[in-house]
Amino acid sequence: MASPYNVLITGTSGFIGGSLLADLLSRTDGPIKNAKIFAAARSDEQVESVSKLGINVLQIDLMDEKSVLNAVLKNEIDIIVHTAGAILPQMATNLIKSLGERRRASGTETHYIHTSVATMFSEEGGWPYGQVKDSDDSILEKEKEIGEANPINVLVAELGKAEGVTTYNVPVPTVYGRGTGEWRKLSVNIPAITRASMKLKTVYKFEKDGHPPAIHISDLTALYAAILEKIILKETIPSGEKGYYFAMAHKSPWWEVMERLAQSMHARGLVSEPTAKVWPSYEVAAEHTGFPLIFIRAIGTSNGDLVPVNGPKIGWQPKWTEKMYLDSIDDEVQAVLDLDTVKMTLWDSL
């Protein structure tokens, strides 16, 4: 029997959203193949590009409440996977409220899968509580205690509850690998450092080593798909204030990553030395990588002791390991050389 669900993916011209769309459309069996997939895009050019996939592409200004509401109601959207500008509260508000209106108008259940930032759960990102499992019942309450540091996660859970929309939160860490979407195929972090290194003829690292969580893009899209499958099958899984799904496959040992990056780039003649030096300051790092100064310390030196429980509980098992990641750094450099045709920022990926 065909699934009644209409699924809208935002950010489909971006790295994560585009790769997720490609993943979902490639599935020839399972519950997702029966869902009707819609893609959201911003510009005429992006709409034209994504439309080549033969699906319904909606040109929506996610910051415009009426635009979002009209798109959700007209196309009877039941599930939204939000990967575009997901750190912007207004977008989340518009999407969740529109799903609330859809639920009230149709009487059907509606679901919202939010993409947030895993760095929020590191000491450098404002998380003072140490190790955290995504199955911990107290995450949301702790985020409320933190206050302004993590407002988006609180907003998603509380507004979803108020609107009768079932919400899920996927905190995303460092993502690597080549994307499979139609528009942006490069990740953010390593390409930004690679570009800066090419410009400066030197690979730089921060004075403090970090071991943040990381994930390959294919493992990330598989997590979204696992959540979607459970929703379509009407199975009860953690949601709302308990609906966190840490998208972590392994750690990223930053100093070692930078050394491998330096070796790879030096072998190509892109930098002058095969070893990494320390950034002169956070200000210089922010200027050359393009990351906002307010976030550069957390991006470059964070750790974060995240333990994914809910994802594996619903059947998600990442395939990429830390060793595979480190061994792929040369491929990351090549990807920048092959694919760096569209300027990428932190905000584009989220």
UniProtKB/TrEMBL annotation:
Record lineage: Eukaryota, Fungi, Dikarya, Ascomycota, Pezizomycotina
Organism of origin: Bionectria ochroleuca
PANTHER family: NAD(P)-BINDING DOMAIN-CONTAINING PROTEIN-RELATED (PTHR48079:SF6), PROTEIN YEEZ (PTHR48079)
Domain of life of the source: Eukaryota
Name of the protein this chain belongs to: 3-beta hydroxysteroid dehydrogenase/isomerase domain-containing protein
Residue ranges constituting the 3-beta hydroxysteroid dehydrogenase/isomerase domain according to the UniProt record: 8-87
InterPro entries, alphabetized: 3Beta_OHSteriod_DH/Estase (IPR002225), NAD(P)-bd_dom_sf (IPR036291), NAD(P)-dependent_oxidoreduct (IPR051783)
